[in-house]
Amino acid sequence: MYGGQGNDCLIGGTAILAGGGSNSGDDLLFGDGGNDTLIGGRGDSDQFVLGAGAGTDLIVDYDRQGFDTILLQGSLTEADLDFINSSKSIAGNISQTDLQLVLRSTGEVLAIVQDITAADFEPIKRIEPLII
What we know:
Layout: E1 8-11, E2 16-18, E3 27-30, E4 37-39, E5 47-50, E6 57-59, E7 69-72, E8 81-91, E9 94-103, E10 109-113, H1 118-121, E11 127-129
Parallel strand pairs: 1-3, 2-4, 3-5, 4-6, 5-7, 6-10, 7-11
Antiparallel strand pairs: 8-9, 9-10
């Protein structure tokens, strides 16, 4: 699904959800069940919704400027999560480190934040409860 320019709310099952590539638009990306790829777009304040039992979502473009937010469903809080670096080879001897957001009580991987480490994530992370 592709939201285009502007503010979008995208909800999917096993899908690629893209909020748009423009520099404007605050997107709410809710992967729901299944393993989803979430792309908020550049230069805006996107919200990525994660929850237990909803699959492992890949967040492709978490904003290093600290404008994006991860929203946790149910009673989950930041204290319930472990932040674990995971390295992988992407081409020949080139590797990439991704950040896994892991539910401490079960070991379930809620999300993989692409191309960011726990040390990079710490000063910019914004994790809040999802309020409906």
